[in-house]
Write a structure and sequence with these properties.
It is built from nine helices and six strands; from the N terminus they run E-H-H-H-H-H-E-H-E-H-H-E-H-E-E. By secondary structure, it is α/β, with parallel strands linked by helices. The protein has two domains: 136 residues, Rossmann fold, CATH 3.40.50; 85 residues. It has a six-stranded parallel β-sheet, with helices on both faces.
């Protein structure tokens, strides 16, 4: 059955992740020297465990914010082992509080292959949607980048209260797009959230592994969004 609909993750797939620079900046401000690459490595190490706890939960905006604070705490523990729990709580709280301020200093930047791929897919008549694990204010980022012209369907976990890999968020996206799962492909950079989550909703998941460092044998893998087209046939 031909593919009619393509869903995308946002951060790390279309948007160059600012998270690593934001967290490293805040950590440095509170006395912990860290570079973005260290943050990036720690994030990918702890995210699967975090998703096991929070991925299937329906959460309010406040609960989502607390869940992300706990993710920050996990990152901090891994980067700076042996710290007392009250220090972990203090720093992770400061990371959350400082995020909006520091975020404004880090420019928004899409990957070079993002807009060309979206333009081709839109011109080709594909329905497009975005399914992202992110805080509620991500909707403002999407609008600031002008991406709403590509995405009539946008599901942000902090808004809808469900996170990937919970298949419910994908089913919500399918409903809004008027799409069938067997005619849909989802592209994202996190195996557990984007491939497993999509698969559990009956959608084909394609892993975007830009560095070629995380080959997964049981799903299609691409290193650039421009490689997606063969997987739509």
């Amino acid at each position: 059955m031909p593919v009619t609909t393509v869903f995308f993750d946002f951060g790390g797939t279309l948007l160059i992740m600012r998270r690593d620079r934001i967290i490293s900046t805040i950590l440095s401000e509170v006395g912990y020297s860290a570079d973005p690459e260290q943050v990036h490595s720690a994030y990918f190490s702890v995210e699967p465990s975090w998703l096991e706890v929070y991925g299937d939960k329906k959460m309010t905006g406040e609960e989502t914010e607390e869940a992300y604070r706990k993710l920050d705490a996990m990152i901090f523990r891994l980067m700076f082992p042996g710290r007392r729990e009250d220090e972990v709580d203090r720093v992770s709280t400061l990371m959350r509080l400082g995020w909006p301020r520091v975020e404004k200093t880090v420019p928004l930047e899409l990957y070079p292959d993002a807009l060309p791929t979206l333009e081709v897919l839109k011109a080709g008549g594909y329905k497009l949607g975005m399914v992202s694990n992110a805080p509620p204010d991500t909707v403002n980022v999407i609008e600031a980048l002008g991406l709403q012209r590509f995405f009539p369907v946008v599901l942000v976990s902090g808004v809808v209260g469900v996170s990937k890999p919970n298949p419910e968020i994908f089913r919500m996206a399918l409903g809004q797009a008027g799409a069938k799962p067997e005619e849909t492909v989802h592209v994202g950079d996190v195996y557990e959230a984007d491939v497993v989550g999509a698969r559990n909703a009956g959608i084909k998941g394609v892993l975007l592994d830009r560095n070629g460092s995380r080959p997964i044998p049981d799903c299609p893998c691409i290193q650039s969004l421009s490689e997606i087209y063969p997987h739509l046939r």
